[in-house]
Amino acid sequence: MLRKILKWTGGIIGVLVALILIFYFTMYMMVNNRKSKTYNVEVRMIDIPSDSASVAEGAHIYATKGCADCHGDDLSGKIFIDDDALGKLSAANLTFGKGGRPGNYSDREWLMAMRHGLKANGKPLLVMPSYEFYKMSDHDLANLIAYLKSVPSVDHELPKPKLGPLGIVLSGLGKLPLIPAEKIDHQYKPGEVVKRGPTREYGQYLSMSCTGCHQPHLKGGPNPVPGGTPARDITAAGNVGKWSLSQFTAVLRSGKTPDGRQLKNEDMPWKMTANYTDEELQALYLYLKTL
Hints:
Cytochrome Bc1 Complex, Chain D, domain 2; 11 helices; 3 strands; globular; Cyt_c-like_dom_sf; heme
């Protein structure tokens, strides 16, 4: 009797192991196919300025888009996930130093990355949240690229991205935003300039930077980084609906809520939003209050 039970138990375990291996192999092949896909897109070229005013404006956009959180203040890149199960993922060195952009890196390649989430050969970039950038106006994106091209070179070589077993499974299930090109409308044509001012319309434009964590509807949801704190609802149904403009501004400048809680920057990047101008914060507040 005992032998029969052990035989049945061993059989069940064997079947489960086989199913797990089949599932993992399926996820592995699916992710590899998505990573190796070639996208054929039409890159609409725009003029990239080089004057000091445009570069300064681009530096402000870099600061307010949260680029430094991954690429660093000096743009030399850094490892942001280093976990045996998840894998090792890093943000690229965006300078022209060793390990960074080659000297002949063209404006077309900048636009491929920012507007389409793609490398020069049409293969997808990994993790880079281009879906937060592709709707930027030509004016703003041109100034951002102008700034990226102007920074001093830094020698910093980073490891190639590598997914661990959990990272493969989460990517296959769509729980890890691995391939930004899949979330982009590659036919979208932004306007040349967005009118700035303390308006709902300008706030809607600025809210693109919030959609990566808070979802396109800004109602929040699971953190895109496994194990991270879930993103909150930032529409009028959440805390924003209870806060005054001055309270909202204080939270995004200091990370301290009206009830005295100190937000962790890794949960809510207030060190990024602290760079917003008063006009930008007012516009964003007006827009979020209408949702």
